[in-house]
Amino acid sequence: MDKVFSDAKAALADVPDGATILAGGFGLCGIPEHCIAALRELGIKNLTFVSNNCGVDEFGLGILLGNKQISKMISSYVGENKEFERQYLSGELEVELTPQGTLAERIRAGGAGIPAFFTPTGAHTAISDGGLPLRYGEGGKVVKYSEKKEIRQFEGRDYVLERGITGDVAIVKAWKGDRFGNLVYRHTAMNFNPMMATAAKLTIAEVEEIVDVGALDPDHIHTPGIYVQRVFVGKQYQKRIERRTTAKPAAKPAVKGS
Question: Model pTM?
Answer without folding.
Answer: 0.89
